[in-house]
Amino acid sequence: DSTFNPTQILINIMKFTFAAAFLAGTATAFAPVTFGGRPTHTSSLKSAVEESVYTFAKSEEIFAEAQTLMPGGVSSPVRAFKSVGGNPVVFDRVKGAYAWDVDENKYIDYVGTWGPAILGHADDDVLDAVKATMEKGTSFGAPCPLENELAKAVVAAVPSVEMVRFTNSGTEACMGMIRLVRAFTGREKVIKFEGCYHGHADSFLVQAGSGVATLGLPDSPGVPAAATSATYCAEYNNLESVKAILEANKDEMAAIILEPIVGNSGFIKPTQEFLEGLRALCDEHGALLVFDEVMTGFRVAFGGAQQYFGVTPDVTTMGKVIGGGLPVGAYGGRKDIMEVVAPAGPMYQAGTLSGNPLAMTAGIETLKKLSEPGVYEELERKSQKLVDGILAAGKKHGHALTGGCAGGMFGWFFNEGPVSSFKDAAKSDTEKFGKWHRMMLERGVYLAPSTYEAGFMSMSHTDEDIERTIAIAEDVMSKL
Q1: For the chain, what is the radius of gyration of the CA atoms?
Q2: Sheet-wide strand order for 445-446
Q3: Catalytic residue among 101, 123, 292, 475
Q4: Which residue from 10, 333, 364, 437 lies 20 to 30 Å from 250 (Cα-Cα)?
Q5: 429, 415 in Cβ contact below 8 A?
Q6: Residue 437 and residue 433: Cα distance in Å, rounded?
């Protein structure tokens, strides 16, 4: 019909604009409907912060019920949002860089299921491989070739690992690791660092950061004094504190254990001199150097933080990324050390679901993609862009803020900085962080609900996602 009809034209424009926004997967909190032509990139980012904030009626209802069924309503403490105020949102589904809650709010997600989702959530190739494996069975309780395949990939990638034992979680890997270092050296005492978290085993719940710090607990009730009597705490990035413990306990230390980049007191990088100094001290005192790379393994570099910094430990623990989003853990190291583990040696450790075919498959497919050229350079570029943008937004509006990144891992503190230890991190303005977190959440950005947790970038995050996040952050910073 060639008849001029202004009303029909306006209706058609509205239909076209709505359809374009829908096909782009853009939630109303991210990009409003515009008329009179396509908005500029700047105006579209500005619009991201002008929409009304999210509401969470269904999440509130489900979480209220959860609190009657599970302690605190969650299966892991930090998820309860205790340190940021308000109640957690309840997720319905995830895909790529995004998450949707049960109220159909869409988020740019920088938690990434606490690290494993380095490819992005629900990667199609990983899902297809897991579905194919599932047809053969979900668990064998017997050797399978997939264990060999993932083990070979880990050994090839991680400098310290000549043999590996798979477990079902990072905590379980660390439990096996501490028993191993004691069995190998014939010594009981170990050194860990304030704010470093190595799972919830009794021996490690001493100044452990992460959820412990979030809840304000110095350690945990129920841990016998005897369980921690052989655990000594030093200050991160302070070699003198380590030397003092070693001198006072000559020839008694089995291992020095640390997160080579701290992710459980927020994001804290070590100095090169600190890591190299620990390597030298272990060699001098006959102790093993252990890197807990549950968080950093295949996250900051393909060979982990040990490749990133060029410092090789004796034993490494892993998890998260190597399971591609399924429950997994592992510990590995030199062959002579690992051959102490049963059944090759006398140190016992076992697990019903260890090495299960689904987790092995997800890990294999994930590592294949991560081995491609340029992956970690791109992850670090995006992480740096996000951190730089957040710091600039904070400083523009007069907030003390410091932060950094490595590969696909990052973090910041409401703190003048620098932050080089848990003691420094504890000086941060946690009340301001809590307000900032809630306001970002209400505008479609999902961040770790604690100042004492690192954030994670994925291959699925786009520059547009990062720019939108920075634009929202600047608006929120102006209101804090």
Answers
A1: 24
A2: 91-95, 98-101, 106-109, 445-446
A3: 292
A4: 333
A5: yes
A6: 6
Cα distance from N-terminal residue to C-terminal residue, the chain: 55
List of long-range contacts for 122-131, beta carbons under 8 Å, 24+ apart: 122/94, 122/95, 122/96, 122/325, 123/324, 123/365, 123/366, 123/369, 125/365, 125/369, 126/324, 126/325, 126/362, 126/365, 126/366, 129/361, 129/362, 129/364, 129/365, 130/326, 130/358, 130/361, 130/362, 130/365
Q: Of the listed 98, 197, 331, 376, which one is catalytic?
A: 197
Distance CA 280, CA 450 (A): 34
- CB of 267 closer than 8 Å to CB of 404: yes
Task: Report pLDDT digits (tens) over 191-230.
Answer: 999 999 999 888 888 765 555 544 444 467 888 888 888 9
Cβ neighbors of 211 (< 8 A, separation 6 or more) are 76, 77, 78, 197, 450
Closest of 197, 252, 200 to residue 227, by C-alpha: 200
What length does the chain have? 480
Question: What is the distance between the alpha carbons of residues 46 and 27, in angstroms, rounded to a whole number?
Answer: 15
Active site residue 110: no
Mean per-residue pLDDT for 161-181? 97
Is the pTM above the cut of 0.85? yes
Structural tokens at position 78: 């930090």
Q: Are 274 and 307 in contact (CB under 8 A)?
A: no
Find the helix packing angle between 124-134 and 357-370, rounded to 10°. 150
Q: Which of 189, 192, 269, 320 is catalytic?
A: 320
In the chain, what percentage of residues exceed pLDDT 90?
A: 82
Determine the longest span between alpha carbons in the chain, in angstroms.
Answer: 95
Q: Which helix (H) or strand (E) holds 145?
A: helix 145-157
Give Cα separations from 97 to 25, 53, 70, 130, 221 (angstroms): 12, 20, 29, 20, 38
With residue 157 as reference, give the H or E element that holds it.
helix 145-157
Please give the Cα distance from 254 to 230 (Å, whole number).
10
Distance CA 245, CA 191 (A): 8
Convert the pLDDT of each residue in 36-80 to its tens digit: 333 334 455 555 566 678 999 999 999 999 999 999 999 999 999
320 is catalytic: yes
